[in-house]
Recover the amino acids of this structure.
């Protein structure tokens, strides 16, 4: 720790963790490093006595890093008890952000490209009483591949799974965990609109094993009759929605919920354009469900908005986004179909890169790969797994904090990890990395705002 500097106007205390950031080297992957900077913004004197006109107060920090490059920053502003600041303006290099303060804390994340090895942050507090606590952290540097995709190979990633038959037959989850050599942190399953999505026994079976449930709630019936999005939005199903919301609230523990996944595709009755469905109807239905859940006290539900990956046959998803106020996490579903059903073999990056970029531009919410897997036909599945989990996901998709493997065969498409001896060995080897050892509690601690 460096000594506190008393300038008579601003107190600054610098705490360094991993102070020497590694230089950017083409083709190398740097270890994660961080700088934590604490700023007390405001006059140290009694200049702002009661009744005096509040004047803006400014603090400027310049911090040296070892190399120019792309950095990820997060600024948190914490007003002390009794503080009455109106807003804070943050200037990071050429970027300017204005924060409206809450009583507790306000934070933003941003990327900044440093053309010189110096990070400059200026914080201006407008109005109120002195002494704002601002923390700036840098995680990086973020390297980029030749395609321009940001990389951070040390980002921890939670491992999740959909195992056919779970949670109805929970012993299958234990068998799967033994098969792959690691317990998942997320357990995914599916429920029709008319089923109980939050049955206590289902949730308990997963929670007792130290895992967090992720329920995909699909607006159709077991005979595959679709539930109209417009009907959901106008309140026709409010009694059903409210009953399920009360069940979730009664459980009390965190639940990830995906409503109407892959809504940008045309293979489900709620898909964009199917039966005349519009993006505005989907957004209205999603928001209405969330509003009903909140009204019933189900604040433990973490809403995961999940479009399908964009390819030549699937439209974009931007118009279907309900907005940050109605979403906690975002996810992307995507598969390597190999050469089945007229498809061609794709790497993990080819499946997800376009959608990942679109999601980065759409929101800063934490991201998951909510369904993925590969077939054997048309390539080498074991090599696909090794590359996807060992280098592509951690190296090119740094905002992805969890991955859920879909472990079920469908027709001639065998998505299971043990579709071959080689594939199972590859999966066990990849998932054995400490990178995938994120616990359910650690995953749930990731900020969503």
């Amino acid at each position: 720790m460096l000594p506190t500097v008393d300038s008579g106007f601003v107190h600054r205390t610098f705490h360094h963790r991993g102070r020497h950031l590694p230089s950017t080297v083409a083709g190398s992957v740097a270890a994660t490093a961080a700088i934590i900077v604490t700023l007390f913004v405001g006059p140290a004197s009694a200049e702002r006595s009661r009744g005096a006109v509040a004047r803006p107060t400014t603090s400027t920090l310049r911090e040296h890093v070892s190399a120019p490059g792309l950095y990820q920053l997060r600024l948190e502003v914490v007003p002390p008890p009794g503080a009455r600041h109106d807003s804070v303006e943050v200037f990071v290099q050429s970027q300017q952000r204005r924060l409206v303060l809450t009583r507790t804390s306000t934070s933003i994340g941003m990327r900044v490209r440093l053309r010189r090895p110096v990070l400059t942050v200026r914080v201006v507090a407008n109005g109120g009483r002195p002494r704002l606590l601002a923390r700036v952290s840098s995680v990086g540097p973020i390297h980029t591949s030749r395609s321009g995709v940001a990389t951070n190979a040390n980002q921890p990633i939670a491992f999740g799974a959909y195992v056919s038959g779970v949670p109805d037959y929970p012993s299958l989850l234990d068998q799967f965990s033994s098969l792959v050599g690691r317990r998942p942190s997320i357990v995914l399953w599916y429920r029709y609109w008319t089923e109980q999505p939050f049955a206590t026994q289902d949730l308990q079976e997963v929670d007792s094993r130290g895992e967090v449930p992720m329920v995909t709630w699909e607006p159709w019936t077991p005979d595959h009759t679709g539930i109209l999005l417009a009907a959901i939005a106008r309140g026709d199903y409010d009694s059903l929605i409210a009953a399920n919301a009360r069940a979730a609230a009664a459980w009390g523990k965190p639940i990830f919920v995906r409503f109407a996944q892959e809504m940008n595709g045309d293979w489900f009755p709620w898909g964009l354009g199917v039966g005349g469905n519009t993006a505005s109807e989907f957004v209205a239905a999603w928001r209405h469900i969330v509003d009903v859940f909140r009204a019933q006290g189900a604040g433990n539900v973490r809403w995961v908005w999940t479009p399908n990956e964009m390819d030549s046959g699937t439209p974009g998803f931007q118009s279907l986004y309900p907005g940050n106020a109605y979403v906690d996490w975002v996810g992307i579903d995507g598969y390597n179909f190999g050469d089945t059903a007229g498809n061609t073999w794709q790497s993990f990056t080819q499946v997800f890169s376009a959608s990942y970029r679109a999601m980065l531009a759409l929101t800063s919410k934490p991201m998951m790969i909510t369904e993925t897997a590969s077939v054997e036909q048309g390539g080498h599945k074991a090599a696909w797994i090794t590359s996807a989990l060992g280098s592509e996901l951690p190296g090119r998709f740094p905002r992805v904090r969890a991955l859920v493997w879909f472990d079920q065969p469908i027709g001639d498409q065998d998505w299971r990890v043990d579709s071959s001896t080689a594939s199972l060995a590859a999966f066990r080897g990849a998932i054995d990395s400490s990178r995938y050892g994120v616990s359910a509690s650690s995953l749930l601690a990731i900020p969503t705002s």
Confidence is low (pLDDT under 50) at residues 1-54, 128-132, 134-151. The first strand starts at residue 5 and ends at 6. Residues 5-142 form a domain with the Jelly Rolls fold (CATH 2.60.120).
